[in-house]
Design brief:
The protein contains 12 helices and 24 strands. By secondary structure, it is an alpha/beta fold. The chain folds into 2 domains: 7-116 and 269-344, FAD/NAD(P)-binding domain (3-Layer(bba) Sandwich), CATH 3.50.50; 124-266 and 357-419, FAD/NAD(P)-binding domain (3-Layer(bba) Sandwich), CATH 3.50.50. A 7-stranded mixed beta sheet has the order 7-6-5-2-1-8-20. A 5-stranded parallel beta sheet has the order 10-17-11-12-13. A 3-stranded antiparallel beta sheet has the order 14-15-16.
Length: 435
């Protein structure tokens, strides 16, 4: 490492990490800086499309962006940063295989993002699945379709009922969109079963507060509840999951029932790996940042996104930017520009973005949206949802593939094949070996 070529270490390959490195790649290719991105995964997942991937509206491979292909000129390390010693400008990396090693840097971008915020609920870790990456989306799709197969082949009424009961915990974007999209897919799939009707399924959304989708406002949140209930889907507000041991769901209102499928989407928290750094953190475990995205008190450390407490300059109450993709992408673009300004000895600029609104899909041709204060429902909102998110998917390659998926869906029926056996590829071989 030489002083003439600053080494920029980007910790994390999600929204902030990928977009920041993407903004730095040209300078890296010119030899002005060196950029290293470290992430346990070799792809960036565009999470807003996970519900559509789970429902089969988008090919799962098209909602992930390969880091090495996209970040030409940057070095990509597949591994996990286990600690950061910024005083000595060294990060410890745990690769997929082999011993840990130290990686020195001149400037660092902390983009570790968030993880699922779980609670000590009995059975949650063993029975539930999350909904933050494409593997979970594919597994959930396969499980829903697999449960339909089980129910169709199961004479026991109790087992059949449990197989056709699907519970989502959390009424934010991930929970509501996943809940609605998968029910829409499963409802369509029942036409291929002679002994399963849509009304045989039970879909339950559990939300601890008194509203869902708070980002779209109370009016559209109430509208969403009404639309879901019209589809015979249960929305339990001001209700908590108390236990789910061995698939036995116990709710705070006293009801108990069996469910084979339980999905946890009840919020996120800053990556706990930040606790193994010497960076300043707030009471929520987020990195303290200035409005220019520098970490407080440090000239050579930066952060943004879910793991950062960035002041919202458009707020009059001293609030921080919300942990969502809209802020993360824009912060990352400014972050890359600010790093290059710092390298050139210029002053970085402050981040200021007024939240433009939110869009949410409720299944095929159904949605809600609030943009610049304008409320939209139904098909127009669903169209806005798709238009907005395809515009935000990184790279033209991915945009084209997603649009092609949607175009083909206009001419061909929805694909409802389960590939659940892919999760246990050696099962048939084991049976043959043990027979």
């Amino acid at each position: 490492m030489t002083a003439q070529v600053p080494h920029i270490l980007v910790v994390g390959g999600g929204y902030v990490g990928m977009y920041t490195a993407y903004g730095l790649r040209k300078a890296a290719r010119r030899g002005k800086i060196r950029v290293t991105v470290v992430d346990p995964r070799s792809v960036m997942t565009y999470q807003p499309f996970l519900p559509e991937a789970a429902a089969g509206s988008v090919e799962p491979r098209h909602v992930v962006v390969p880091l090495r292909k996209t970040l030409k000129g940057c070095r990509v390390v597949t591994g996990r940063v286990t600690s950061i010693d910024h005083e000595h400008k060294v990060a410890k990396v745990m690769p997929e295989e082999g011993p840990d090693y130290e990686l020195a840097y001149d400037q660092i971008v902390v983009a570790l993002g968030s993880v699922a915020r779980t609670l000590p609920i009995p059975g949650l870790a063993d029975e539930a699945t999350g909904f933050k990456n494409v593997e979970e989306a594919i597994a959930l799709r396969n499980k829903v379709l697999d449960r339909l197969d089980v129910a169709a082949s199961q004479p026991d009424p109790a087992l059949r009922k449990a197989a056709l009961t699907f519970v989502f915990v959390g009424g934010g974007y991930a929970g509501v969109e996943g809940f609605a999209e998968l029910e829409d897919m499963a409802r369509y799939a029942t036409r291929y079963y002679d002994n399963i009707q849509p009304e045989d399924m039970r879909w339950v959304l559990v939300e601890a507060t008194n509203r869902i989708l708070p980002e779209v406002g109370p009016e559209l949140g109430k509208y969403t509840v009404e639309q879901l209930r019209k589809r015979n889907m249960e929305v339990r507000l001001e209700t908590r999951l108390e236990s789910c041991e061995k698939g036995r769901v116990v709710l705070s209102d006293g009801e108990e029932f069996d469910a084979d499928t339980i999905v946890w989407t009840a919020g996120v928290k800053a990556n706990p790996a930040l606790g193994r750094t010497d960076l300043p953190l707030d009471d929520k475990g987020r990195v303290k940042c200035l409005a220019n995205l520098r970490i407080e008190g440090l000239d050579d450390a930066w952060s943004a996104g879910d793991n950062a407490a960035v002041p919202d300059l458009t707020s009059e109450t001293g609030a921080y930017c919300a942990p969502n993709a809209q802020h993360a992408v824009r912060q990352a673009n400014l972050l890359a520009a600010n790093i290059l300004r710092a390298v050139d000895g210029e002053a970085p600029r402050d981040y200021k973005h007024k939240y433009v609104g939110s869009v949410a899909s409720l299944g095929l041709h159904k949605g809600v949206a609030q943009l610049y204060g304008v409320k939209v429902k139904g098909w127009p909102a669903w169209f806005l949802h798709r238009t907005y998110h395809v515009s935000r998917v990184p790279t033209f390659n991915r945009k084209a593939r997603v649009v092609l998926d949607w175009t083909l869906a206009l001419f061909f029926r929805r694909e409802v094949t389960s590939l659940g056996s892919l999760q246990m590829p050696n099962e048939e071989f084991r049976r043959a070996a043990n027979s």
